[in-house]
Design goal:
Blueprint (H helix, E strand, L loop, with lengths): L6 H4 L2 H5 L4 E5 L5 E4 L1 H6 L11 H8 L3 E3 L1 H8 L2 H7 L2 E5 L4 E8 L5 E7 L1 H16 L3 E5 L5 E4 L1 H7 L12 H10 L3 E3 L16 E7 L4 E8 L5 E7 L1 H12 L1 H73 L8 H32 L7 E3 L1 H18 L15 E3 L1 H16 L1
Antiparallel strand pairs: 1-2, 1-6, 3-4, 4-5, 5-6, 7-8, 7-12, 9-10, 10-11, 11-12, 13-14
Length: 425
Amino acid sequence: MSIRPERQFAEIEAGLDALRVGFALVDADAVIQYTNVHFTHIFPDAGFVEGVKTTDLAMRLSEDVVKGLTHWLECREDPATLALAGPFDLTLKDGRVIELKERPREDGGRVLLASDVSELRKQSARLSDVIGASSDGFAFFDAKGGIDLWNDEFAIAMGDASGELTRGATVGAVLARARACGRIELIGDPPPMDLVDPDARRRDFILRHRDSRELRLRVRPSQAGGAVAVVTDITAQRAQSDAIGSRAAALSEQVATLRATRERLRMQTASLLGLKEELFQARRDADAAERDKKSFMRALTHELRTPLNSIIGYADAFELSPHGPIGAPEYLEYVRNIGRAGRMLLAIIKNILDVTRIDSGVDRLAVDPTEIAPSVNDLIAERSAAANGIGVRIETTLPDDLPPALVDEGALQAMIENLLDNALE
């Protein structure tokens, strides 16, 4: 037999079935009078429960509920305890978490509300994990101003003598209790905090913990209508601030020293500017000297090499005597001496020009791995006839396994030529 409410309630039955909350009416004898459709969806294995006592409903749910059912039944035995203890979370085998709330009715019965809060509890667990892993202290206060959730760091900083916090305590009560047991002391004298006034929630406190740390307690309103409190360790910041303050006098003294140094630098700069002008003038003089040197070398090339080439050419002509003998044999020897001396002088001029070009960067040495022995042997072979003519014998002591040397082959040959020519003079 169905025990449904009177006809006036039947008119809103469709509205109750549209609720996303399980709804049940319980009379004064703890008998379920009515359930909406969503109540059946939340507890599908309970079956038809209208006319069933709540204790029988609990027995039907006992196989599916793994946590929370016993606590709910124990609290239902005492109405006063039930009013203070709710709501209740029932954890089911399928992983869902169902929140039960009981509200008293005027006729002595009750209204039973069941909501699936599985996702909400997961998010709450994630939030607890996040704030639990933080090095700062976090606490959340509900719309009535009571503390609802906190992490260990907040309890360590703001707890009582044993490090405990009382759920539902306001920020003012938490501060007062922590100060009373000597856990913290306020730095400065902030006015009392009233969480009833929303504008007063945005507050900052500087605290000194009994472990000598300095903390900043920041309270800010939350979007849910409550408040969020964050405790941050600012010991290092305060120490750094004090260190900066202690260095202020030293910095002022350094500023004065820097000003005096700047004046000296200004005077040195003026002196350096004068020196710079002198260096520019010296550079201009050096450039002029370089131009004069190049002009001299060009003149040397033209004024000396040209007549020397003519002298050598005429000496060779006299030596060859294409138009007949020149007379006494002594004259032929004189002509040979003239040609030899001219060639030596021309070689000297050429060497001077080569050295000048290398020094000025016009010519650069082509340094490559070079076999020294072949160059020396070839030059000695060229000079052997002249050496034998004057009774000089040229010998070398170069080893057969002499490794290649990094040299400019042309410069090496010129050096050996000069050494041999000097030896044969």
